[in-house]
Structures are given as C-alpha cells and as structure tokens.
Amino acid sequence: MPHDGHHHDHDHDDEGSELSPLALRVKALESLLVEKGYVDPAALDVMIDTYETKIGPRNGARVVARAWTDPDFAQWLKRDATEAIASLGYVGRQGEHMVALFNTPEIHNMVVCTLCSCYPWPVLGLPPVWYKSPPYRSRAVIDPRGVLAEFGVTLPEKTKVSVWDSTAEIRYLVIPMRPANTDGLSEDELAGLVNRDSMIGTRLAGKVA
To answer: Is 186 among the catalytic positions?
Structure first.
C-alpha cells in the first residue's frame, strides 16, 4: 500500500551535532523554505509545539481511559474506531481511518510503519524519532520480542505478539491493558497512567514516559 511521506524532525541542534541523513535533508529543506519566505519559523514552532505538547499523546490517553471505564465505548472502538475517536473531538489529518487494537493476556499488539512513518497524529501527536528509524521498522517485524525487551517489556511465552503495519490508509491505536489495582481511579487519573509508547505497543500502561 502507498505510504505518505510526512517526515519532519524539526531539528535545531548545532551544526556540529550528529544528524541522520534524513534529518539533514529535512533541516536543509526547512532552511531553504525559510530563506525564500515560504515558511515562518515562529509559526512552524507553534505547530510543532501544538502536536508535541498540546495534542501529543494526551488525546490517545483519553481514548484509552474512556475505553477502560466505558464498555459501550470500548465496543464502539472495536467496531469503528474512527467514529468513536471522533466523538471525543479527535479528528484531523493522519487520523481519517483508525483501527483500535486491544491488548489482552493472550495477545500483545505492536505497531510499525515498515516503509516510512505513518502515524496517528490526532491521537498521538508527532511520531518519536525511534519510530521512524530503519532499525525499528525492520526489527519490529523480524524480532518483535527482542524489540520489546529493549523497551523493558518481557511478555509471558503464552502471549502472542501481533505486529501491525501502519499505512497511509489505516492508522492503528493500541489500547493497552488496564493496570491492576486501579478500580478506584477516575477517568482523568487513568489517562495519566497511559504513556505514548503503550499506545504504540512498545511499553505497558502504568507510567507516563
């Protein structure tokens, strides 16, 4: 399936810092656009900050917390994640076609984009650098348990690991298992236990990364 290229590292490191070839290309393109007056650096910074800190993974955490506390909403997510997520006001580019993947003791879901970095921006914000890296994109498919171990996640042998390849047509949101002993927490408190990586499937819920 075709993948859309929406890479943007927006790196402001010093010239002497080590940047990947992709980051160098992005930085050169950004500098050229700014020089020609096509891009306002301040506006670009506002947009990046919006996705990183205001949207970020907070929207996704709200979706997960609602699924944990509202069985009807969880069933809606399973049937039509796009509409269920939109009902909370989280819509936009890169989130037009969403699928929710529910982790259970029997199956652990993990998301990768093997061709580029397709990612559900409306619920998770900007993709982390490692999500776009070639090592993760290749090893997540070949050795998912090894990758999970590097993130500090060791699953029981009986738990199957299912890897989903995100595309320009479909974006995935992992619904991690609810941590134990959280029955008395409010939806807001539960959202605070949902970290970004747990919604990609590379960590467990319970601590904000």
So the answer is: no
